[in-house]
Amino acid sequence: MDYRYLGNSGLKISEITYGNWLTHGSQVENDTARQCVAAALESGITTFDTADAYANTAAETVLGEALASERRESLEIFTKVYWPTGPKGANDSGLSRKHILESINGSLSRLGTDYVDLYQAHRYDHETPLEETMQAFADVVRQGKALYIGVSEWDAEQLRRGSALAKDLGISLISNQPQYSMLWRVIEDEVVPASRELGISQIVWSPVAQGILTGKYLPGQPLPEGSRASDEKGGADAVKRFLRDDVLTAVQDLKPIADEQGLTLAQLAIAWVLANDDVASAIIGASRPEQVRDNVKAAGVKLDADTLARIDETLGSIPETDPRKTESPETRPS
């Protein structure tokens, strides 16, 4: 496993992060979830990402239990705040001071730790003054409950404003967690240049496009049984934007490139995002431990310029590149 610095900080994280969105506490049983975490640890992964909203807090509990016997100083544990949790009352979502300070306490309790390495704003809150949000994050850092602050799916202007306020408050905003893959490149034109300017790294989620880039979905064929696209607990919603025959055909056309590199399609997809120097880590999820062991083999793979160019040529105009697709809800979800 290789390690990369996160933003302009001195914190190093594994270039593969294990994440438990849509799995722990919902799609997979707890025993299997613990086996997946064990496989991640055995594979050299030290960085783990979750959020209070995943499975309405259950995912944090499962991850905390799975990591309980590990040396805390050898791990980087990330969580997030914004989406509704608990009974979903008026103040159970967003980035108000009340919600942030109450949520960090709940997350630490569920994770079984005194601090998280990175506490992230899961989206931008248009209903709360950014000054209030960043002051609350600064207090969380000063209380020793988080070491660093990050965000997820903020656009370039939001990153600039948040970074400036963080600097004024004496804390470090060091990361953004966007969706990024061969098929979803909306951060490239605006978010990445702004982040580079600000010393912010990308920790990218869905590098295999919710499983589309594994090649298991075939054009004109029924959805595989047990796949995320057929899951009614939320997985299907995340996948459906890619379930077009032109997309699925282009993905199949990538297979000769993967074969030449001695990689699976999923490994090629993860190696592709890691070829971007602005990416500190790619988040992988898993419903089985063997998926972790397979996908982690993308760590350390170096794709040359010719291979990257062939991937772009094969996909053509298929990837989504519109920077306006980076957006947060206009009102707090409930």
TrEMBL record:
Basic and acidic residues biased stretches: 321-334
Any one GO CC term of the record: cytosol
GO MF, one annotated term: oxidoreductase activity
Positions of the UniProt region annotated as Disordered: 312-334
Gene3D superfamilies per UniProt: NADP-dependent oxidoreductase domain (3.20.20.100)
Pfam families recorded: Aldo_ket_red
Keyword set, alphabetical order: NADP, Oxidoreductase
Domain NADP-dependent oxidoreductase: 15-313
Keyword Amino-acid biosynthesis appears in the UniProt entry: no
InterPro entries given in the database record: AKR, K_chnl_volt-dep_bsu_KCNAB-rel, NAD(P)_OxRdtase_dom_sf, NADP_OxRdtase_dom
UniProt record similarity statement: Belongs to the shaker potassium channel beta subunit family.
Name the record gives this protein: Aldo/keto reductase
